[in-house]
Write a structure and sequence with these properties.
By secondary structure, the protein is an alpha/beta fold. Helix content is 29%, strand content 29%.
Length: 218
């Protein structure tokens, strides 16, 4: 596989046609070697338009979803990001190039440790990883973020979750169940006012721990 050509094709033929038009974000996607984060047996599919399995319960997002998320959020260099679901660590590493710092939570310790090692090898030092179950709540009283990215679907986002955001902050989330899931960006306009923008219909695995719950408390 010509990795450089496959990387270019992924940007030109998957990400940009699907709405991932932010050139700064696309440069970050291009600069971080996606193939480095893909499990060995799937290396030849590193740039395919699919979700790549990491474990029996976790997958990498497809390139076009990653590009669309970043385009919608317009992350700035002075912003802080909370990522729920480290997974392979690829999107985490891309985020690290776009913002001031990333805090990334992962329920699977093996995935978290593997991602940490890859960050170290790439000399990325503005990522903090946490091992924990976000479905049961995760918040420190002093932690607020400019951007929150939920890497799985949730049945429903509730008000407590929004208060992780600074004013002006944005959440990306895929909300819904079954075949009725919608990707959204929720912006905190003021202390008590939020704006929701629907982006596209999709289907992602449900966050572990929420498979049978009716709502998501964070």
């Amino acid at each position: 596989m010509d990795t450089d050509q496959a990387r270019k094709n992924s940007i030109d033929n998957q990400i940009r046609p699907w709405g991932g038009l932010d050139y700064i974000a696309n440069n970050a996607l291009r600069d971080i070697p996606r193939e480095f984060f893909v499990p060995e047996k799937y290396k030849d599919l590193a740039f395919a338009d699919i979700e790549i399995p990491l474990t029996d319960k976790a997958k990498m997002l497809s390139p076009k979803i990653e590009g669309r998320i970043l385009d919608a959020l317009k992350i700035k260099k002075n912003e802080t990001v909370l990522e729920v679901g480290t997974g392979s660590g690829y999107l985490t590493a891309v985020l690290s190039k776009l913002c001031k710092s990333v805090t990334s939570i992962e329920i699977n310790e093996e995935l978290s440790v593997s991602a940490q090692q890859k960050f170290k090898e790439l000399n990325i030092n503005n990522i903090t990883t946490e091992i924990g179950d976000a479905s049961k709540g995760w918040q420190r009283s002093t932690d607020f973020f400019d951007v929150v990215i939920i890497g799985t679907s949730v049945p429903k986002i509730t008000g407590r979750f929004f208060h992780l955001l600074n004013v002006g902050g944005r959440i990306f989330v895929v909300e819904g169940s079954g075949k009725a899931m919608s990707a959204k960006v929720i912006t905190r306009l003021s202390e008590h006012k939020w704006e929701t923008k629907s982006l596209f219909e999709t289907q992602l695995n449900v966050m572990l721990g929420l498979e049978k719950t009716a709502k998501f408390e964070f």
